[in-house]
Amino acid sequence: MWVNHKSPVAEQALKLFSALYEVERQAQALSAEQRQRLRALESRPIVDKLHEWLLLQRSRATDGTAIAKAIDYSLGRWPALVRFLDDGTLPIDNNWVENRIRPIALGRSNWLFAGSLRAGKRAAAAMSLIQSARLNGHDPYRYLSDVLERLPTHPASRIGELLPHQWTPLAPS
Q1: Could you point out which of 81, 125, 146, 171 has its C-alpha 20 to 30 Å from the C-alpha of 61?
Q2: 52 and 42 Cβ atoms separated by less than 8 Å
Q3: Cα distances (Å, whole numbers) of residue 52 to 47, 57, 59, 160, 164
Q4: What does the CA dihedral 149, 153, 158, 164 come to, rounded to 10 degrees?
């Protein structure tokens, strides 16, 4: 909104978000406990001010406008948006994950033309599994080889053990 329309409302929101990210820059090298303390002292007052400001701006915004929709979106997800304040191990945003899944998200629509809708869905699932293996520190080839070898005899009730975040390779025999 700010780039296209130079909205003063968007400009004020950006100033508040910039202040939060400045605290995060200061907190980057801190331990989780120290980061949580810093956030309590410096970020919480900014977040409280942002919440009050959003409520005020929403009372002024006309229903159905872009600004009203943006504010409603933020207020509707408020507990999730401020969760980082109570846990120093959580990042302020999910940009790290978003950047890693972007190739899959972009490819997903392309895979719908992989011969059939069914084939596209399978390709998307396979690529999601491969990327999840990478994000969990596994070599995707080794992960998939092991899982595909185990799958025929693995109990269905324990299939979760083969997901990338829970998988442990079998010891070589």
Answers
A1: 81
A2: no
A3: 9, 9, 11, 43, 41
A4: 0
Query: Is pTM, for the whole model, over 0.70?
Result: no
Both tokens of residue 67?
């600004």
Helix/strand number for the chain, H first, E second: 9, 0
Q: What is the pLDDT of residues 146-162, one digit of tens each?
A: 999 999 999 999 999 99
Distance of alpha carbon 70 from alpha carbon 68, whole angstroms: 5
d(Cα 113, Cα 106) in Å, to the nearest integer?
13
What is the C-alpha R_g of the chain? 22
Query: What's 166's DSSP letter?
Result: T
What was the pLDDT predicted at 61? Answer: 92
Distance linking the first and last C-alpha atoms of the chain:
60
